[in-house]
Write a structure and sequence with these properties.
Thrombin, subunit H; 2 helices; 6-stranded antiparallel β-barrel; globular; 8-stranded antiparallel β-sheet; mainly beta
């Protein structure tokens, strides 16, 4: 049986905060470590723009889904970036993980702090929070890790996750990053995230994949 999966890229640009939250997850959001991202570039079809979410690490790198920078599987040309509606000059071309839908980039500006990557692996059955943007507003949704497979997390959220939340942070109950949201299954509430840990980050930052 084939199950369709769709990327969580939004095609339109206002919603209230969804779900409940904890003080530690609130801290991540209120500190500005989770931001809306708009990537604009050119592909064979002309100029394209994609929306999603980016997450700031304490190392100064931003993480998002690699497909936010792609058109038909190819990296867009002449890439420009906006963060929360403001132009955000890149210090270099974003880099993508060689096997996972995960990208990293740095900006020519500084934001204090950043999310800490969880040092321990997330386990099946653990509760998580999805923090990201949809229609310009932050959304927080609670869920549970249902399955782990080949560097990815299957998450069952307690409420439907809207399209357009690619790159959203998946946080544990201590507010530490355990994943980056990349897709959802069309027939169920289940969403898919890249599991983030120190090994994944190391491979990503040493990758030669990118635009």
């Amino acid at each position: 049986m084939r199950v369709a999966v769709i990327f969580l890229i939004a095609s339109t640009i206002a919603t209230t905060t969804l779900g409940t939250n904890t003080s530690l997850v609130d801290l991540v959001v209120e500190a500005g470590w989770v931001r809306q991202i708009v990537a604009v570039g050119r592909c064979d079809e002309g100029e394209v723009g994609f929306e999603g979410t980016a997450v700031l690490l304490s190392s100064g790198w931003w993480l998002t889904a690699c497909h936010v920078f792609q058109c038909d599987g190819e990296f867009v040309r002449d890439l420009t970036l906006q963060l929360d509606g403001k132009e955000a000059p890149l210090t270099s071309t974003p880099i993508c993980h060689p096997t996972l839908d995960l990208a990293a980039f740095k900006l020519d500006s500084s934001v204090p702090g950043g999310v800490e990557v969880c040092s321990a692996p997330i386990n099946v059955g653990e509760h998580v929070w999805i923090a990201g943007f949809w229609h310009h507003r932050i959304a927080l949704l609670e869920g549970v890790v249902a399955k782990k497979r080949r560097g990815e997390l299957w998450i069952h959220p307690y409420e439907p996750v809207p399209e357009g939340m690619s790159g959203s942070a998946v946080l544990n109950e201590e507010g530490r990053l355990v994943g980056i949201l990349i897709a959802k299954f069309t027939k169920t509430l289940t969403v898919l995230a890249v599991e983030v840990n120190s090994e994944v980050i190391s491979v990503l930052l040493n990758s030669t994949e990118g635009g």
